[in-house]
Each structure stands twice: as structure tokens, then as C-alpha cells.
Hints:
- By secondary structure, this protein is α+β, with helices and mostly antiparallel strands.
- The chain contains nine helices and seven strands, in the order αααβββααβαβαββαα.
- It has two domains: 1-124, no CATH class; 146-246, no CATH class.
- The longest helix is centred in the N-terminal third of the chain and has 45 residues, at 31-75.
Amino acid sequence: MRWRASTIAEVDDLPAKAREMRAALDAIEGGEAEIGELEARAHEAGLNYQALAETLSITRFEAAQRLDRAVAEELAPLKLDAARFKTQILRLPEDRWGPGGMDAVEFLIATNPGADFAPLGKIASGGELSRFILALKVALAEEGGAATVIFDEIDRGVGGAVASAIGERLARLAEGGQLLAVTHSPRVAARGRTHYVIAKSSEGTVTRTSVSLLDAAGRQEEIARMLSGAEVTPEARAQANRLLAA
């Protein structure tokens, strides 16, 4: 009796099993048509991608020309009179195309007359790199109209007249918006309209960072300290006054 009940139950399932097997067979027989449809859709998507990527390449090339001109105008004020800058755009092999398009973009510079262009990060010294980055940021900020621009030790590796040139350029850029500059250069700090001192203090395992707004006297003292080091001398205070007056 048990065998008969099991057999009847299995026989009753045969229509559903037949429908399941028919659906699987139809999927196999119709697979070629589905593959053809998918291939057609993939081909169409590829054509759409290529058209959009070509448009992006044209836009990118036009933007690169504007950027090159803007950066070139910034080099002389930053004491890079003999330097040249250009944006290189190269077409990538198809297997490297991606969401960013089908181009490779790199910034190239030549720092001496007659020298060949090479990648910015490979041939620029620390001071040159800081000034090229400043020129780039200035050009991009003016193009995009950023409300706030932040520079973190953009004057690293430079001093003297070059630091003064950087401070002057930062001051002019600040006329068009808000600019924050973290600096260890007294020549750059003297160009700011407002001066904050950031200091760290430690008590045991706890470290705190404080930010203090300086008044005119405090600012003079801080710039004198930046000039002379641990001991602030009368000569440093006099030089600080000259920097602030300029």
C-alpha cells in the first residue's frame, strides 16, 4: 500500500514535471536567439560609449588648452619665468577604456629652456613642485569659482623672494574669495589679513590642539618668532614690521 501511494503521488506530479522540462527545453532551443539579442545590445552600448567618450575627449582637449594658458600666466609671478607647462592627453588602448573615458591625462613641465617636457611629479624639485601646484590650483579655482580655497604648506621648500612671490599671489587670489593657508613661512603669513596660531600641547597620553586668533601685536610677535626661532630678537621684530608694512 505504501508503494502504491508513492507511485500515485509521483504520477500526479508528471504534468508539472513535463511543463518544467518543456520550459527548460524551450530555453535551450531559444538560447541562440537570446545570445544574438544580447550581442546586438552589447554592440549598441559599445557604440554609445564610444560616441560619448569621443565627446568627452574633445571637451577635455579644449579644457586642457584653457588650463595651459591659465597656468602659463601664473608661472612668471611665481619666479618660474623659464618654465613651461602643458597637459598631455593620450588615447588609451581599448582594453583600458573605462568610466573616465578612453584618454590618459598627465601634466608635463619643462623647467629649463630647451629641455624636453617630462611628468610634473618626476622632474620638479620640492620648491618647483609647490609653485606649479599653486599655479594649477589658482587656475582651477578661478575657472571653477570655488568659494573657499585651502593651501596646506604650499610654500614648502622655498624661501626668500620665492616665498614672497607665493605670498603675494595668495593675497591676490584671496581678493576674489575666502583663502586659508597653513604656512611656516613668515613672508607668506605676513600677507594674510587674519592670522591664527595653531599649537599642540600634551598632558600624559592626551594631546590637544588649540587655535588662537592674534591681534596686531601678537601677529608681529609671531612673525618675528617665525623669523628668528626660539629667541625673538629686536632685529626679528623690526623685520616682522617691515614684512607687515609691505
